[in-house]
Specification:
The chain is an alpha+beta fold. Helices cover 29% and strands 34% of the residues. The protein has helices spanning 22-29, 78-86, 125-135, 137-152; strands at residues 2-11, 17-20, 35-46, 52-63, 66-71, 93-98, 101-102. β6 and β7 form a beta hairpin. The N and C termini lie far apart (45 Å).
Length: 153
């Protein structure tokens, strides 16, 4: 797995995008920029310790406003990195923070679309469709109130 780039960009009103150094980006926002995602010495093995190691001693960060591209061959840990960052799996070793919060389980501020989507077999079709609304905070309360209405449709 390779971090292809870790850039900060400033988008102009005319649609142009200008790459900025960390120092330039801090000058634009008027203060030092903090890490939005921090992965600190993370290791995850599927099947527990002694199983298949997916990522080992992984350390990286992405500052607020930056974007990162992660590339590599099949099986190198790209999807595992996303699952770790979104809280779908937790590491055996190390720490992950997103927006200053320790990731201990699924985050409600992110979404992830898999290349080969599948339904969760323990949920009904309707429950699979409604899952994103259950997870995203602004919609969860409305879903609870209106679930019967959705079922009737």
């Amino acid at each position: 797995m390779t971090l292809l780039w870790n850039e900060t960009a400033l988008s102009g009103r005319d649609g142009t995008v200008q790459k900025l150094s960390h120092r330039q980006a801090e000058a634009v926002v008027g203060q030092p920029r903090t890490d939005f995602v921090t992965i600190d010495d993370v290791t995850l093995s599927y099947g527990g310790h002694g199983g298949v190691t997916a990522v080992e001693n992984l350390t990286m960060s992405v500052r607020e406003g930056e974007f990162a591209a992660v590339v590599g061959p099949s099986g190198c840990g790209k999807s595992t990195l996303m699952k770790l960052t979104t809280g779908l799996v937790v590491p055996q070793v190390g720490r992950i923070t997103v927006d200053g919060r320790h990731v201990k389980g699924p985050l409600n501020i992110v979404g992830m679309a898999f290349q080969n989507p599948s339904l969760l077999p323990w949920r009904t079709t309707l429950d699979n469709i409604m899952l994103p609304l259950e997870i995203v905070s602004p919609h969860a309360e409305r879903l609870r109130k209106n679930k019967a209405e959705y079922v009737d449709r």
